[in-house]
Amino acid sequence: MKLEKVSLLFETNRHHFSLIHDELPAHCQLADGAVFITKTSARTRANSTTFYRVQVRFTGGMFGLFRQWLIFDFGDRPVLMRELTVELGHSECRSQVRALREKLHFDR
User: Which pLDDT tens digit goes with each residue over 60-105?
Assistant: First the structure.
């Protein structure tokens, strides 16, 4: 299947994530799938395989847990979604933060 679009879902953390490629502007949130083609196998025209490489950049300056959904649209429903998660902070306190987050989730 041909990848038609790649996008970052509209989320509160979206300004920390961006699609990156030489042909894309800075802080890109939506791109044509053809930009990410890396190579196409040349077995036969009818039976070729296309490979895509999609890179996402994260930039952040404050501690916390950041989530973002990466959407792959092949022109058919449903689309393929992949959750990206970044935990930013000092490694010493990461286990404490994780334990507190689990307790908060449990208390709700």
Answer: 878 878 889 999 999 988 789 999 988 887 766 767 777 777 777 6
What's the CA gap between 84 and 23, in Å, rounded?
A: 23
Q: What backbone phi and psi angles, to 5 degrees, belong to 59?
A: -130, 130
The tokens of 89 are what? Answer: 């902070």
Q: What's the pLDDT tens digit per position in 3-26?
A: 999 999 877 767 889 999 999 999
How many CB atoms neighbour CB 91 within 10 A? Answer: 6
Number of Cβ within 10 Å of residue 68's Cβ equals 21
How many Cβ atoms are within 10 Å of 76's Cβ, its own excluded? 8
